[in-house]
Amino acid sequence: MKIDAVSYPGSNPITHDYLQPAHPIHSFFSYHPMNAESFVQRAKWVDGRKEQYSRARLVEVLRSYHQPELDHPAIQRNLERLSEPDSLVVIGGQQAGLLTGPLYTLYKAVTIIQLAEREQERLNRPVIPVFWIAGEDHDRNEVDHVWIQTSEGVPVKHRFSSGDEKKRPVSSLYIKKEEMERWLDELGRILPDREYKKEWAERLKKWTNEPVTWSRFFARVMHHLFADRGLLMIDSAYPELRRMEAPFFKHLIKINDSIHSRVMETAEELKKLGYPVAVDLKKNQAHLFVQVEDERLSLVRDQGLWRSRDGRESFSDDELLSLAEQEPERLSNNVITRPLMQEYLFPTLAFVGGPGEISYWALLKQAFEEAGFRMPVVYPRLRMTLIDRTAYKRMQEFGLTWSDLFTRFGEKKEEWLADRQPFHLDDLFLPVKEQIIASYQPLIRLLSEEIGMDLYEMGQKNQQKILEQVDYFYNYTKRSIENKYRTELRHWEEISNTCLPLDKLQERVYNLVNYWNEYGLSWLSRLLETPLLTGNEEFEHRCIIL
């Protein structure tokens, strides 16, 4: 396995500027992620509120969550270390995507683990990696499928349908053994026959051999991948965790107006600087959800009441505070309040996020302060692309650099094809079209003036049909040239399907099973063993040749 570090800042404007050594966007954050002193200062701040963390209770909840099948000696060691009074955590999270969802979920876990290990050595104190599973999330369309490559290398979406269309949190959605077995068998038929097909199929079927919730299935896969590195996990909808969150839910209810005002003010500041706002903010938004009859409904503030957005439920302040006290498992957070809840629960050194998350965290500095906190170090997750030896060989044959691949792949392909044409088609066909128009327009005007205006419209339509025929001949000629280089163009497509499926970064599309089937899991183990946080990763994208 070879790893190339490529300079590629990406397309997210906030993240791009955030990773600059010095930029005004840093005023929206508390620490610079690439400054070693940031971690020292953050650790001191956490120490200053040491008594406010319920470490013993938190460890008790985490230990309970990992029982029985998510246990591991490395997990137990980190639980013991988390109970120490000077412990810190590096935390990040993700929705419970099917079979872990897109590859960036794995890269986020790798970043969390490596950052925790690096800072533990630097700070000489326990730093524990934690993965927060958004089991409260109800947007099934984002997590109910995987993208893989067929035997022909073509991207295809394989969706698992539960048949339940309610807005139920995925932590309460059970997977039926028979349905999952059938879905996995279909997945196996789509993927090419390789050495590791039996391995992943047997393991995944084993983990759903009895009724299991969607988010617990996700946790089992993640546990298999990262347990030996001591990655702790927690489902945000875990009832024991919800009970621990009850006091802070009450606090969020009391300061809700202030939180919302600070976020809206920050959004306006970002707009003035020309940045897009990453969250769809509404005037009366409460940034909390309530569960009603198995459905998760967002709350809004309306005439002194808290109402579900669909109008089915309403609460006074006292009623919602009582709900938070007595049934906290019915409440949950959105993207604005979830980071605050994490800060309440965990002695957080750093949060690991992707480009989208960094964009919405830019809204939260004042919200953290309003809640009595300070935003932790916000660290960008590693960005990677996996490429097989064949596709890499194709790149070399075409003289493509990594920069070409990520920034102008389509342009390079067109240049390559144009170089193989005996003449430039546009130079041949454009003058013909101009001559037709130059000859036809005077004819149309003359006939319409001398004979009748109805000939003007007919003449324009006739000219358009002639031009369309010229375009048809142009496209036919272009296809004929492409057919001559069909094999080479298929090689271009192989590169695209491998590295830029659907014209997106690979990490945002393909699922782990695509590579488990082909290579097993040793590549992921080697990735974990390779120090990737070198301090120079501001704009680096790792290209991994398998």
From TrEMBL:
Its EC number is 6.-.-.-. Pfam families: CC_BshC, Rossmann-like_BshC. InterPro entries: Bacillithiol_biosynth_BshC, CC_BshC, Rossmann-like_BshC. GO terms for molecular function: ligase activity. Residues 384-532 form the Bacillithiol biosynthesis BshC C-terminal coiled-coil domain. Keywords: Ligase. Involved in bacillithiol (BSH) biosynthesis. May catalyze the last step of the pathway, the addition of cysteine to glucosamine malate (GlcN-Mal) to generate BSH. NCBIfam families: thiol_BshC (TIGR03998). It comes from Lihuaxuella thermophila. The keyword Ligase applies. Residues 1-382 form the Bacillithiol biosynthesis BshC N-terminal Rossmann-like domain. This is Putative cysteine ligase BshC. The keyword Zinc-finger does not apply. It is an enzyme of class 6 (ligase). Belongs to the BshC family.
